[in-house]
Each structure stands twice: as structure tokens, then as C-alpha cells.
Amino acid sequence: MKRGLTTAIAALVIAAGATACTSGKEDGAPHGGTQRLATAKACADGVYTWLNVSRRPVLTDMTAGTHYDKGDKVNTKDVEEVARYTRSVSTRGAALPEKRVIRDLARHLKVGLYGDGVTMDDGIPRTTEYDKQASAEQTAETSGRYVTGRAADLVEADYRYVCGGRTVSSGHVLTWAHVNEMIIFSCGEKPPKNADDSEREAARLGCREGDPARS
Which of 187, 192, 200, 115 is nearest to 151 (CA)? Predict the structure, then answer.
């Protein structure tokens, strides 16, 4: 099985310590040991603590197994949506600006995240459905059925925002990193040991029972 090609759409390394609490000014620039927020509903010098942070590839688009002859070009341009994810921040307690919450999580992970207001245009849609610009192509090494797809690098986490020794706000974040995984593989080949969950899901959905790719 050909491992999916991972394409960095907007690579960014955010310089900050990967600790539970991060720092920043109102404009997102590093300053001091707190995340400063211009909001009347929460203190200005609170600190975020991140809990239950997960980052995983999830299948968003694919084509079912299609026959290609050896030497044909196989690409991801015509994949169809199979799952959609919506960026969100749910909050309990004092209201916090969504952009600032996601930005602090981005610092914690040292990766650009959709909705952080730094690495992407603020006007981008809130769902994974819009991201159709990237594609990948490779030559079929053998004749047979191939599956193509795309996966998003989904990020979820819980947070607490503490001011003066007490939690004034808490909640949950769902977004994704600025990386799209492009998936192309033959149903006639066994998956590599390092195949991720999105590739295995594409094989399960796109190949036939008994195909080596589903093993």
C-alpha cells in the first residue's frame, strides 16, 4: 500500500513552551506568563490549562476503489465528502473570545490551528468542507483498484481558565491543524505497519472484503 502523501498547507511553528499554561498579549504576541484578554467578563491576567488534548487524522473525503491500469495517473481531485467537522469552542462560565482560546491551544501544541487568527485568514469557513484546493497525484505501479482520499488533522481539547486562584471559565475546543493528508493506495497491497486511522478507514470503506488493503 502506498502511504498517503502528507501536504503541509500552511506550516507554522509557533515559538512557545509546550507547557500546560501559555502566554500572550491581547494581540497574540508573547508577553509575561499569562494569556491577556480584553474582556469585561473575565479577568485580564488569567492562565489557560489544557486537558485531554488529542490530535488525530480523520477521513473527510474519498473515492471508492476505482480500476487503474499500470502507468495511469491516480489523483485525489475527484474525491467526495464522507465526513464534515465544524470548528467550535464551547464555554461554561465567563465568556472568552473563541479566537484567543484557539490561539492559546495553538501555542500549547506549537502548531498552527484553524481559527487561531494568526496563521489563516479570519474569514475562512468553519467546516472542513471548504478545503478542496490541495491535491496529490501518483502513477499506478500495478493494474488494479485504487482508493484516494483526504484527511484532516483533527484537534480536540478541554480547557480551564483560572484567575486569582479560581476557575472562571472552562470548556471544549474542536478544530484542526494546517495539514491535509492526501491518501492514495492500491486495494491489492497490504497496508504498511505505520498506516494511520484515516488510511485504514479509507481501506475499509473503499476496498472490497478480502482485499489485502483491508487486512
Answer: 200
Tell me how far apart the alpha carbons of residues 98 and 88 are, in angstroms, rounded to a whole number. 8
Scanning the structure block, which residue is given the C-alpha cell 498517503? 4
For the chain, what's the residue count? Answer: 215
Side-chain-side CA neighbours of 71 within 13 Å: the count stands at 0
Comparing CA positions, the residue from 136, 149, 137, 159 lying closest to residue 198 is 149
Segment 14-64, tens digit of pLDDT: 323 333 333 333 333 333 333 444 443 557 778 999 999 999 999 999 999
Q: Kindly state the cell numbers that stand for 37.
A: 484578554
Higher-pLDDT residue of 119 and 184 is 184
> What are the cell numbers at 174?
474542536
192-210 per-position pLDDT tens digit: 989 999 999 999 999 999 9
- Measured CA to CA, the distance from residue 64 to residue 151 in angstroms comes to 15
Return d(Cα 154, Cα 86) in angstroms, integer.
10
